[in-house]
Design a protein that fits this description.
mainly beta, 6-stranded antiparallel sheet
């Protein structure tokens, strides 16, 4: 699978994950490579290509006993240690039916327990021993989350973790950028519900951050023991005057129509207690600013925004402040800086001012 680097046109800029750089490429003549990674000076490794897909599809046909087209790839997920690759391969040509496949990157061998037909999405546990995956109901709505151990001998050993019976909600799986939690996200057009799974505990059960409430939306990330939530819920700051600088922005007449950034200690989300009571405001809604995304880095966070219709970034350097023995540590903003430019587009560059 290793080959010398050759000149090629990249469809995406390389993305560094740990010691490797990953990218897709296309060639003026010949088959596109779906995923490669850089191994060192002058060496690359092909992880997915048209030839690899057809080889895996042939193996799946033998395992499943049904046709597998192998002409399209859906989601691609790397385990945290980058030894295992999970990806969705098309089963029926022209239809959105996929099979999850797990393979050992070094040997190219398919892992039998990692073959999961009809999985709509999937996510790794922190140690790579388990896959969390989602199945659709009879109407094709992703609704059920299960956990499969890769050393299991039967799909009957899979553990059902969550089922959403509300036909308006669709379930997806993600993990926080630091791999601390796997997130079960259940969203409709008007409301959200997110459940946390401890990614470091392969036997953990989901815990709800905030039960769905009409017209309440929120999206979750994690930063050094604290949950960060983008939410349309109006949170009024109760910070004392000495900490007023820790709260960026202000409430407005349009409150509740856009997203603000709130936080709470992750330890306060338990099976016995969840809800918005402990949400603390970090960044309020601001006039003419629409927050579209959140990126987490070691030294702080980046809010992706639209400022008066133009792309913008707000860079926030955060501090975790210790409290008394009875209280959890609190999170505050040490510094904030806004950048507005039509040239914003490289997510890696956005972290530089926070260093």
């Amino acid at each position: 699978m290793k080959e010398c680097a050759t000149a090629a046109q990249h469809s995406d800029a390389p993305e560094r994950v740990g010691q490797y750089e990953y990218w897709a490429e296309y060639k003026p003549h010949g088959q596109d490579t779906i995923l490669r990674r850089h191994l060192g000076i002058g060496q690359q490794q092909v992880l997915l290509s048209a030839d690899v897909l057809q080889q895996d599809a042939a193996a799946l046909r033998d395992v499943l006993g049904v046709p597998v087209s192998g002409d399209h790839v859906g989601a691609v997920k790397m385990s945290q240690d980058q030894r295992l690759l999970a990806y969705a391969v098309s089963m029926v040509e022209g239809a959105e039916q996929y099979c999850c496949v797990v393979k050992d990157i070094d040997t190219g061998r398919l892992i039998s327990a990692g073959v999961i037909p009809h999985a709509t999405c999937f996510e790794w546990s922190g140690d790579g021993s388990c896959l969390y995956y989602c199945l659709a109901d009879d109407l094709g709505r992703p609704s059920k989350v299960l956990r499969r151990r890769l050393d299991s001998v039967s799909s009957g050993d899979d553990v059902a973790l969550f089922t959403d019976t509300d036909p308006k909600h669709f379930v997806t799986l993600t993990h926080t950028k630091d791999w601390r939690y796997v997130l079960i996200n259940s969203h409709s057009k008007l409301s959200s519900e997110v459940h946390l799974l401890d990614a470091e505990d392969s036997n953990s059960m989901p815990v709800c951050v905030q039960a769905r409430t009409p017209d309440l939306e929120y999206f979750v990330e994690h930063y050094k023991g604290h949950l960060l939530l983008l939410t349309n819920k109006l949170i009024v700051s109760t910070a004392p005057p000495t900490h007023a600088a820790a709260v960026i922005g202000c409430t407005s007449a349009a409150a509740g129509q856009d997203y603000s950034l709130v936080t709470l200690p992750a330890s306060q989300v338990t099976a016995e207690h969840s809800g918005t009571d402990n949400w603390q405001l970090l960044v309020a809604e601001r006039p003419d600013v629409a927050v579209t995304d959140l990126d987490v880095f070691d030294s702080g966070i980046v809010l992706h925004e639209r400022l008066a219709g133009r792309p913008a970034l707000t860079l926030l350097r955060l501090s975790v402040e210790p409290q008394s023995v009875q209280q959890s540590a609190s999170l505050s903003v040490l510094h904030q800086q806004q950048v507005s430019s039509e040239l914003i587009g490289c997510r890696q560059a956005s972290v530089v001012p926070c260093q």
